[in-house]
UniProtKB/TrEMBL annotation:
Top-level taxon in the UniProt lineage: Bacteria
Protein's UniProt name: FAD/NAD(P)-binding domain-containing protein
All residue ranges annotated as the Pyridine nucleotide-disulphide oxidoreductase N-terminal domain in the record: 89-128
Coiled-coil ranges per UniProt: none
InterPro entries: DHPH_N, FAD-binding_protein, FAD-depend_C, FAD/NAD-bd_sf
A UniProt-annotated Pfam family: FAD-depend_C
Species annotation: Kandleria vitulina
Domain spans labelled FAD-dependent protein C-terminal: 274-469
Length: 518
């Protein structure tokens, strides 16, 4: 098969054989078995179109390849080579993308793997999250942070990453195998959506179990120790304590496992790391579509438009958008009473009225302290203030951006109704943050609005506080992914080595491969 790259395709064109034949100046009948390999939207100018790459079959392949060397190449499909089983007993803590893919790969080769998750399986977790949205009732062990699939289960299911790794194709193919839409294999900005991602998780769980793996939900990791050369993991489930013997322990704990951080900080080498905090901003999705897609905003081939912005303030502080959710909603991601943090979530259709995104300011240990858990304390302080400002019961403080810029509480809203459930309180979000964050966030808003005119208008609203964009700590590890304890592997976002579904999943696969090398 041949591959042809970066072909301009109109939004209405679906006859890809015709497109390729025109590009190569050959009869259409010669072009066979065309498959879309990559598609992105080019909206830089008024003529909005797709840029596509295809694979196809053709008679006289070598002759055509020699004639069009600049745009054609031989296509070599990707194949993931599984590591070789080494008969180890592996315990994995956390079923987010890192832990899930580590367990999945090991189960495929028949390794003895036991996946432990403090939260519930996704079917039961959904019920707890629905209650959270309805009346602000938090289940401390089953919420948007804890449970099968990790925090990403109740997100946009975004599958973009800056990580360049060949294993990304394997991750996407695995998702499709287990029910994700096939378009994630070719879209440049793929996403599953929270609703479709839940189905994928159930299917992957069944596969792990069918291959002989074990999964324990509502089981909390509480300690580990070594005795007489053997390794043990302590867990607690529904009030009962149990000790598991293992060869290796994988820590894929997620960035909100604060009690686990506390326990590990006394046993493993950990360091504080930079992260970012800020707010969720909401605009009308229709307006974002018009800004991004111009006159093509209502074309049926185009879905809800995303955006991505990053600026540097005069104080050399980075301010950027994060986890933008087209046609999505703002949700509470707290797991503890008296704290309030928010996140964004989209369904596969991305058909809600508002767009939302985090707008974050970088913070470093110089801002919050160099003790290993000072970042956690800094996050909790912001979350306590946000909870109090919202008035309790997980109501979130909301403010129009123009009022935030002027440091006055909002008293009424415009035509943008905040999507956050279980409810909101109009307030002055300046009261949540220290002055350096307010100053940089305000300058960041101004710079972003210049970069993308219309990003902010008189109706745009913000919700506080987004405080868990990434882990505030890093559990140190060597090139073989060991912590300072040789049989313990810290991985994923919670260990400080990834950010988002894809990079976390890659880290989990790499860990599985390292375990099999030992």
């Amino acid at each position: 098969m041949l591959r042809i790259n970066n072909i301009k395709v109109s939004l209405s064109e679906t006859d890809y054989a015709k497109v390729i034949s025109t590009q190569l100046n050959v009869p259409k009948r010669m072009i066979k078995n065309v498959k879309l390999l990559k598609r992105s939207i080019d909206a830089r100018r008024s003529n909005v179109h797709f840029n596509c790459s295809f694979i196809f079959e053709v008679d006289q392949e070598e002759r055509l390849l020699n004639r069009h060397k600049k745009i054609l190449s031989l296509y070599e499909p990707y194949h993931y080579d599984y590591p070789v089983k080494n008969n180890k007993k592996v315990t994995i803590v956390g079923s987010g993308p890192a832990g899930l893919f580590c367990a999945y790969v090991l189960s495929q080769i028949g390794e003895d793997v036991h996946l432990i998750e403090r939260g519930k399986k996704v079917e039961e977790r959904v019920k707890d999250v629905d209650a959270l949205f309805k009346d602000g009732t938090i289940n401390p062990e089953s919420n948007i942070s804890y449970g099968e699939g990790g925090a990403g289960t109740f997100s946009d299911g975004k599958l973009t990453t800056g990580t360049k790794n060949k294993r990304i194709r394997y991750i996407l193919e695995t998702f499709v195998k287990h029910g994700a839409p096939e378009e994630i294999l070719y879209e440049s900005l793929p996403h599953i959506g929270t609703d479709r991602l839940r189905e994928v998780l159930i299917s992957m769980r069944k596969d792990i179990l069918e291959k002989g793996g074990k999964i324990s939900f509502e089981t909390k990791f509480t300690n580990y120790y070594e005795e007489d050369g053997k390794h043990y993991v302590e867990v607690e489930s529904k009030g009962k304590k149990e000790v598991l013997e293992t060869d290796d322990l994988v820590l894929a704990i997620g960035h909100s496992a604060r009690d686990t951080y506390e326990m590990l900080s006394k046993k493993l080498i950990m360091i504080p790391k930079a992260f970012a905090v800020g707010v969720r901003i909401e605009q009308k999705q229709e307006k974002i579509n018009e800004i991004q897609y111009k006159s093509a905003a209502h074309h049926p081939a185009l879905k809800a438009a995303p955006y991505k912005l990053a600026v540097q303030t005069s104080k050399k502080r980075g301010v950027y958008t994060f986890c933008m959710c087209p046609g999505g909603v703002v949700v509470p991601s707290s797991e503890e009473e008296g704290l309030l943090c928010v996140n964004g979530m989209s369904y596969y259709a991305r058909d809600k009225e508002n767009a939302n995104s985090a707008v974050l300011v970088n913070v470093t240990p110089d801002d919050f302290g160099h003790d290993v858990l000072d970042g956690v304390r800094f996050q909790k302080e912001l979350e306590k203030k946000a909870y109090a400002l919202g008035g309790g019961q997980l109501k979130a403080p909301v403010q129009k951006v123009e009022d935030y810029m002027n440091n006055v509480a909002s008293v009424e809203l415009g035509n943008i109704i905040p999507s956050y459930k279980p409810g909101y309180t109009l307030a002055n979000i300046n009261e949540v943050f220290p002055s350096f964050i307010n100053e940089n966030l305000k300058e960041g808003f101004t710079l972003m609005n210049k970069r993308m005119p219309g990003f902010i208008d008189e109706d745009t609203v913000i919700t506080a506080v987004e405080s868990r964009s990434s882990a505030p700590v890093r559990i140190t590890r060597d090139k073989q992914m060991h912590s300072n304890v040789e049989w313990i592997y810290p991985i994923g976002e919670g260990a400080g080595y990834a950010g988002g579904i894809m990079s976390s999943a890659v880290d989990g696969i790499l860990c599985a491969e390292q375990i099999c090398k030992q």
